[in-house]
Amino acid sequence: ARWHESSSPAGPVSMADAEKRRGWDCNDGIYYGDGPPCCRIDCCRREVEESDACAFLGRRGLAFGERNRGRIMMFAAFLSFISIIFCLVPVISTTDHVPTIKDTYWGRARGDGFAIYSAPLYLVVHSSGRDFTFRWEDKDCLYDACDTCKTANEGAYSLAIVSFITSFPQLMTDLQRSTARGDLNCQKILGVFTGVMGMCSTLASLSQYATDCQEELPSRVDISEIGVEDSRITWEYGPSFVLLALASIFKLVDVVCHLLVPVPEKSREPLLRDSSQSNPAPESV
Fold first, then answer.
1. pTM here?
2. Per-residue pLDDT tens over the stretch 154-189
3. Tens-place pLDDT, residues 236-258
């Protein structure tokens, strides 16, 4: 622990107590642990955390980033939290509950008195106050593009699940790096790597969905058996597609935040020892 002089008759005051007295500031960050358990294993710490490559990449950053570590990484954590909410909507869209599909659709087309909603597993047509549901693989699917859309939507389904799950480690990494004593080389590398890979994979899958499905859907429909006569329609992207695209952009911002903030020059030995080993108490001044 670090100590500083105090004019108080009670003697020296720890930095932690001093921070409590002045109140929490956004630049303080949130400290919740000394890093992942693997960093407590000697061989893992030596080959990963303390390797020359990780140390070199960890030190890259700006003085501005070091001075504003807490603010930058807390902002990144906020975006990661919002991304979790955004990624939850596409996950919900994989349901077979028709009202939910109509609220979380990936694509929608409107015509004279009817609307068509596209989701990863189903296509819903709302006409004359009734809802008609089709699976993409059904033989009586409405469009010739259904086979292509089936493949694209399988990718969209997997993308929605993976993006939601991987948003949680992204948030934890942001919080881990928000304080100097909790920061680690491996956490910075992990934050940059997962952010870049997540953004690229998300944009690639969204692009595939847009190209293979959304753009292949017809501009005119004629489904007389459900009350939709020959009508011209225009397709638009829905909330699931838009929110997932925004979440991928947030990942890019998260990567930039990690790159701005360097890992501090400090010995991590006291932080990475087993919790049963405590530091000796400092001498009173």
1. 0.76
2. 777 787 888 888 889 899 999 989 988 888 888 898
3. 999 999 999 999 999 999 999 99
